[in-house]
Request: fold
Amino acid sequence: MSLGVGALITVAPGMAGGGTASAMTRWFRRQNGEAISPFRLVQLSDAHVGFSGPPNPAGTKAFERAIDIVNGLDPQPDLILFTGDLTHESETAGEHAKRMQLFKTLTARLKAKKVMHVPGEHDAALDGGALYRQFFGETHYSFDHRGVHFVALDNVSRGKPEVGAEQLAWLVRDLARYPHTAPIIVFTHRPLFDLRPDWEWFTRDGDEVLTVLAPFENVTILYGHIHRHDVHQSEHAVHYASRSLIFAFPDPTTSGDKKPLPFDKEKPFQNLGLQRVASRKGQQFSVDDVELTLREFGGTDGVQQISKPGVSL
Amino acid sequence: MKRFAILILAILAGSLSAAQDAPPREISITAKRFEFTPNQITLKRGEPVTLHVSALDRDHGFYQKDLKIDLDLSPEHESVVTITPETAGRFVAICDNFCGSGHGNMKMVINVE
Reply:
């Protein structure tokens, strides 16, 4: 496969049951005039623009590669979701703002113009999200797209890995407008379940978020932070983690330490990759995780990479 | 003989009560970007211990879910928690208040024997 880095998601809301689908179509049309129809989106995560270090001395190369690949998709995705750590923080005054500007400059190359973001802790935890808001707007919000209700949740800007009482109350109010059959996609940075608390792979009040979502029958949660693909089924939701665009972390079930996997100059995109999610008849999504390595390329692109392994650093 | 047994029981009960009433062992820990000092402590299962944790430079967190440790640390005051670990094992406590680029590795090990 030669799709790119991130997660390609095809959504066919409410298609599994005809009666439910038509009821939902009527409901969404009444709400916002939108017809329910399948669409595609791409999830990108953890570019850490500005990061420089042994785990990836290539900087934004993988991110730029991902943008090129997304631009090559046919059909184009309606929507790009970026699930946090767009940038890496800096101790130097003004430098973090430059990194945010560089992120915006790079993503302006995307053909898909509907790009939505949530912050990661490296974007927003040191200043409560003040700089992030200047560049990207509010850290939590919601919107509808073709019959799916999208909820952007911020579980980083309070410094601690938590959503907080105020945002939880907002979530309750936001969801109160929707029938329990409405398809919901939540996108956030940290996992909302205890994946590995001693690696800070959790959200302190994630259980409360999942309780608010529990009455809804069709909930998908997209997140980043863990720099690796992961699928987790909780009682009322499926959680998908996208790989990173900078470096990968090891398997939390077999590794004692959270150390980035080593960078290989000959395979600069190794362990970076995508998860591909598509709707199928009778089920909501199917998910394919694709690691972006040389072997994933075909045609001219593959020949170019094999003839010139590695990237210029 | 009966009197002697009662005396022994009384002595044992007194010892037990004294152990239960003894103040918890106290351990001081400091936190600064991006380390805890000491970075490893050893506790005994069933023994109460009071942790006094101080932040030296900025706000931090001190979190270990299994041991029910959840402290907000500030340079302005010392934070204190008393725990009685019931299970032996190796527990990693982390800073859960993002404090910069090395935050992800700010942790210490609590061994319970």
Chain B has one domain: 24-112. The domain at 24-112 of chain B is CATH 2.60.40.420 (Immunoglobulin-like). The mean pLDDT of chain B is 88. The first strand of chain B starts at residue 25 and ends at 32.
